[in-house]
């Protein structure tokens, strides 16, 4: 009897193994992880599965399945329940028809989305050795990354800067902005599956800090296979990075833990100087995520801790002291000392979310997210003779600012004749500390939104509306409309959205100081209002052994009372926030991507004009800018080697400063950044990447003042640490 049971169990085990699809590279035969398999469920609804690290997808029903993956041609297969099927995908070195979720009522292919959506996939990020979200976004030619010595990397899309761009992780907004920007170097790629970028307005869906674009960082929360991954990197600019990620099933719960430690040694203008121009810093972050499926609903719970220390070594000063030599002689000495300041940032992020189907044609998703952000300044007096340190007794040398935020967003989609989505957005912010007027300030935002999707074989129209309540500023009704029209190889898209952005807590009250910045809030700021329009046309030409994608996009953004950081004192780098009466950005973008054999070549040319009026009586100041990006990628499949080069040309940058109470311009000269890298995969588990960033060794760029009879001359703006060689190593232990 025992033998019979054993045989039956073995047969059942074989059937379990046979009921699989195995997806491999069509040339090397290596298994492919993260392949999206789209199919229709028994309820008639679309759904997606993803292959594990062995290339396996388990499905328990017969169906027509559409397979897509970064760097491979899409393929449709017919699968019959119970069979074991191996599928070879044809490599193209090109990202085609990725599945996207950002801003959509349901998961869909990027080419079918009503907005312009681009995807940066895991394999593409690996190919260039990207460690952080900042480095990954540099692969998107429409996204410009600007470097700052203390605030970190800042982002620009089509002339709109970071405060007009929504940044999310799995749909949850990222907090901790300084000067309206998130330091994207703080966000690791350890567990990132892909990054979805939407160009243009998404005001109704995500609020009006999304008039320039939306970036959603997608992690592997939906993946179930066990993984233990370690990685490290080193760069000759004295940057190092160590990352660990593990994922496993604990009964019905999928648990994921990732940790990272990053260090930067800083950079001085001169070796003899004590202070740093690019500040040394170190940060740690740990994230724990738990996911459980109950029926048709997936629940997730996450908590993350981030800590960063930035060191600011002060200049050498001298104190006159008397030293008794003997009874009759007193020696007068100049004793050197310095005032060093530490800036410590701590952030705790929590999130509880749920998504799934309430009924066969009714889906739901939502989250609640408490966040804690603390920035502490501590000043020490260092005796440079004895190297002893003491905390300075002056209370003005120390302070702590605390931001507590509670946010929630939920939406329900009814999949009927028309897809209808309704939802709400809510956030409540509290700020405490002596850098704020009074001991505490609070801020409430409430919004309700709704959108409808009409779609036929060619046309998709998505109108939407958002009503927002702000506890400090009056908010208008915000409408939007997105349109997509398909004609064989052509796709036309157009979007319009009105916008409203109230000043955030830091812009109103925060006083941020380090050796590179002195930024003070402005309680007299007014809320921004905006109108954003864009239209694009794309065409895909498929040849025997090549694919050519061509795109043209025009856009117009009109922002009234735009809030900008203005340089109040050019010598002391004193900044404050000001309202510019009006700023308009109008531009056109043209780009192409060509894939032939194992080559991928792409470029993107972006030309836009900015018109700024600093007061209602002021004549408009017009500035034009050209941004050019290009990339070349080649894969050697037999040796599993990839070569990549990326070039970015940044045109003139418009900034602002005040002189005698008048706002004038500061124009930064253009510059070019070039990165080259090569990567090799060993045993389908180890990735090694070598490369050079900033090959042209660009460091400081001239910035000239404009538009004032009382000012003139130029100064230097730091944009990079210079040429840097790097090595990255990643090992999937399990």
Q: Which descriptors apply to this entry?
A:
single chain, 734 residues, mainly beta, Maltoporin, Chain A, 2 domains, 22-stranded antiparallel β-barrel, 5-stranded mixed β-sheet, 5 helices, globular
Please outline what is shown here:
With 734 residues, this protein is mainly β. The protein has two domains: 1-91, Immunoglobulin-like (Sandwich); 217-732, Maltoporin, Chain A.
Notes on the protein architecture:
The protein is mainly beta and 734 residues long. It folds into 2 domains: 1-91, Immunoglobulin-like (Sandwich), CATH 2.60.40; 217-732, Beta Barrel (Maltoporin, Chain A). The protein is built from 5 helices and 47 strands. It has a 22-stranded antiparallel β-barrel.
Indicate the low-confidence ranges by residue numbers: 4-18, 707-714
Described by its quaternary structure, the protein is single chain
Average pLDDT figure? 80
Give the number of helices: 5
**Count of beta strands:** 47
CATH architecture of the largest domain: Beta Barrel
SSE map:
Layout lengths: L1 H17 L1 E6 L10 E5 L5 E5 L5 E3 L4 E7 L2 E8 L4 E6 L9 E2 L7 E2 L6 E6 H6 L5 H5 L5 E4 L7 E4 L2 E2 L3 E5 L2 E2 L18 E8 L3 H4 L6 E7 L7 E9 L3 E12 L2 E12 L16 E14 L2 E16 L4 E8 L5 E30 L2 E22 L5 E3 L7 E17 L3 E14 L7 E16 L3 E12 L7 E10 L2 E12 L3 H5 L1 E3 L4 E3 L7 E15 L3 E24 L4 E23 L2 E15 L7 E16 L4 E10 L2 E7 L2 E7 L2 E12 L3 E8 L6 E7 L7 E5 L5 E9 L2
Parallel strand pairs: 1-7, 14-17, 34-37, 36-41
Antiparallel strand pairs: 1-4, 2-3, 2-5, 5-6, 8-9, 10-16, 11-12, 12-13, 14-15, 16-17, 18-19, 18-47, 19-20, 20-21, 21-22, 22-24, 23-24, 24-25, 25-26, 25-27, 27-28, 28-29, 29-30, 30-31, 31-32, 32-35, 33-34, 35-36, 36-37, 37-38, 38-39, 39-40, 40-43, 41-42, 42-45, 43-44, 44-47, 45-46
């Amino acid at each position: 009897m025992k033998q019979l049971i054993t045989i039956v169990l073995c047969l059942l085990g074989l059937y379990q193994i046979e009921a699989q699809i195995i997806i491999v590279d069509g040339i090397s035969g290596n298994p492919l992880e993260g392949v999206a398999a789209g199919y229709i469920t028994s309820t008639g609804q679309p759904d997606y599965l993803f292959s594990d690290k062995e290339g396996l997808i388990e499905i328990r029903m017969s169906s027509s399945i559409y397979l897509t993956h970064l760097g491979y041609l899409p393929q449709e297969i017919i699968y019959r329940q119970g069979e074991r099927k191996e599928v070879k995908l044809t490599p193209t070195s090109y990202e085609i028809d990725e599945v996207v979720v950002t801003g959509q009522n349901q998961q869909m292919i990027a080419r079918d989305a009503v907005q312009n959506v681009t995807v940066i996939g895991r394999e593409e990020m690996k190919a260039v050795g990207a460690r952080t979200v900042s480095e990954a976004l540099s692969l998107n030619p429409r996204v410009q990354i600007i470097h700052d010595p203390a605030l970190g990397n800042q982002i620009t899309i089509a002339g709109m800067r970071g405060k007009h761009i929504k940044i999310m992780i799995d749909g949850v907004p990222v907090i901790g902005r300084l000067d309206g920007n998130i330091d994207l170097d703080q966000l690791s790629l350890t567990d990132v599956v892909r990054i979805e970028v939407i160009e243009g307005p998404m005001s109704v869906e995500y609020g009006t800090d999304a008039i320039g674009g939306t970036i959603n960082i997608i992690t592997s929360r939906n993946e179930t296979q066990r993984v233990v991954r370690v990685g490290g990197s080193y760069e000759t600019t004295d940057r190092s990075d160590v990352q660990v990620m593990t994922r496993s099933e604990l009964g019905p719960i999928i648990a994921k833990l990732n940790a990272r430690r990053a260090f930067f040694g800083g950079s001085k203008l001169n070796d003899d100087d004590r202070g740093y121009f690019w500040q040394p810093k170190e940060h740690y972050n740990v994230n724990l995520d738990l996911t459980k499926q109950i029926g048709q609903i997936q629940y997730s719970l996450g908590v993350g801790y981030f800590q960063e220390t930035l060191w600011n070594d002060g200049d050498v000063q001298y104190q006159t002291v008397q030293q008794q030599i003997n009874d009759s002689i007193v020696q007068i000495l100049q004793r050197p000392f310095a005032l060093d300041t530490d800036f410590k940032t701590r952030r705790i992020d929590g999130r509880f979310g749920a998504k799934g189907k309430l009924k066969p044609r009714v889906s739901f998703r939502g989250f609640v997210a408490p966040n804690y952000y603390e920035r502490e300044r501590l000043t020490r007096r260092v005796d440079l003779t004895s190297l002893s340190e003491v905390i300075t007794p002056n209370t003005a040398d120390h302070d702590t600012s605390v931001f507590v935020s509670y946010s929630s967003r939920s939406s329900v989609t009814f999949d009927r004749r028309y897809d209808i989505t309704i939802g709400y957005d809510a956030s409540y912010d509290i700020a405490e500390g002596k850098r704020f007027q009074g001991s505490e300030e609070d801020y409430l935002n409430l919004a309700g939104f709704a959108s409808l999707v009409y779609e036929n074989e060619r046309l998709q129209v998505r109108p939407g509306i958002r009503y927002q309540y702000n506890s400090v500023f009056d908010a208008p009704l915000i409408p939007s409309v997105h349109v997509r029209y398909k004609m064989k190889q052509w796709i036309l898209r157009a979007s319009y959205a009105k916008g409203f952005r109230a000043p955030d807590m830091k812009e109103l009250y925060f006083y941020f100081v380090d050796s590179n910045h002195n930024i003070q809030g402005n309680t007299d700021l007014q809320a921004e209002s905006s109108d954003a329009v864009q239209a694009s046309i794309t065409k895909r030409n498929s040849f025997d052994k090549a694919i050519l994608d061509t795109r043209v996009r025009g856009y117009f953004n009109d922002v009234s009372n735009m809030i900008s950081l203005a340089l109040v004192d050019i010598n002391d780098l004193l900044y404050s926030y000001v309202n510019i009466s009006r700023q308009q950005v109008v531009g056109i973008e043209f780009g192409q991507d060509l894939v032939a054999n194992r080559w991928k070549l792409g470029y993107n040319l972006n030309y836009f004009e900015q018109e700024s009026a600093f007061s209602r009586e002021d004549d408009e100041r017009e500035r034009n800018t050209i941004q050019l990006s290009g990339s070349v990628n080649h894969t050697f499949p037999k040796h599993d080697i990839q070569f990549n080069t990326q070039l970015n040309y940044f045109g003139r940058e418009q900034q602002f400063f005040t002189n005698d109470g008048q706002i004038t311009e500061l124009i930064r000269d253009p510059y070019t950044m070039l990165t080259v890298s090569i990567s090799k995969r060993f045993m389908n588990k180890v990735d090694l990447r070598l490369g050079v960033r900033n090959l042209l060794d660009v460091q400081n760029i001239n910035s000239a003042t404009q538009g004032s009879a009382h000012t003139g001359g130029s100064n230097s703006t730091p944009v990079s640490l210079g040429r840097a060689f790097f090595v990255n190593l990643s090992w999937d232990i399990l």
